[in-house]
Amino acid sequence: MRRTLIAGNWKMNGSSAANAALLAEIKAGLKAGAGCDVLVCPPAPYLLQCADVLAGSAVAWGAQDVSAHVAGAYTGEMSAAMLADCACQYVIVGHSERRAYHLESDALVAQKALQALQAGLTPIVCVGETLQQRELGQTDNVVTAQLQAVLDMLDVAALDSIVVAYEPVWAIGTGKTATPQMAQDVHAVLRSLIAAKDADAAQRVQILYGGSMKPDNAKELLAMADIDGGLIGGAALKSADFLAIVAAA
Ligand code: PEP
Questions:
Q1: Which CATH number describes the domain made up of 4-26+36-68+75-248?
Q2: Nearest in space to 12 (alpha carbons), one of 32, 34, 47, 42
Q3: Active site amino acids
């Protein structure tokens, strides 16, 4: 039985004061515990604030990106070891905004996932097609190429230490959501790709859906057989919405 993971991607939002309020509300809302794994991914300057506030709580924290390099002259980058030093458990890699605005290739994303694993972090590997790719019938090929690049770098044991997130680019921040069946179909493709490497491990890998998941659509998305949680953008910035999605899980 796979556990559900509800992960908030705060993107480039927040401030010390706003985060303090949001984290306090999330913690208070989960005082009695959560029926699923809960994660917040703030901008990197606030990781230690999360560590301070969330230590010992039901909420884990993670980063939104990591360097593909170990250390050295890479101005502006953060190594996986540094994130582990901030007690992160997870790091998002290959978010579509990084792929689009920073031209991150499948190979670079795979390197980042590897760096994360080597530092003991769980990479949340994001894949997803653009609207044009969906309309051209390329969805399965696109997400397969994106995930395969990562799978090719991993040994079978590492499959138990990754999370995959299917995030159709056209659904991110747009209010458009994939129907539960559309999402399920892609999740099934992703799981069978993992199964080609190891059938048992494929049954254990959490595959999240992301793209305008909200309190009013979370339950039906999370009810699908291969949807094991959500990667939440906008709705993760409002404690009531985030907690409602956690409650739906
Ligand atoms: C995201 O950025 O990962 C995301 C899913 O955003 P939103 O929920 O706002 O669509």
A1: 3.20.20.70
A2: 42
A3: 95, 167
Q: Is the CB of 211 under 6 A from ligand 1?
A: yes
How far apart are the CA of 143 and the centre of ligand 1, in A? 17
Report pTM.
0.97
**Domain residue limits, the chain:** 4-26+36-68+75-248
* SS3 call for 32: coil
Closest CA to 204 of 6, 36, 1: 1
Is the C-beta atom of 8 inside 6 A of ligand 1? no
pLDDT in tens, 93-144: 999 999 999 999 999 999 999 999 999 999 999 999 999 999 999 999 999 9
Ligand 1 contacts CB of residue 183 (under 6 A): no
Q: How far is ligand 1, taken at its centre, from the CA of residue 205, in Å?
A: 21
Q: Give residue 194 CA to ligand 1 midpoint distance, Å.
A: 24
Predicted confidence (pLDDT) per residue in 62-96, tens digit:
999 999 999 999 999 999 999 999 999 999 999 99
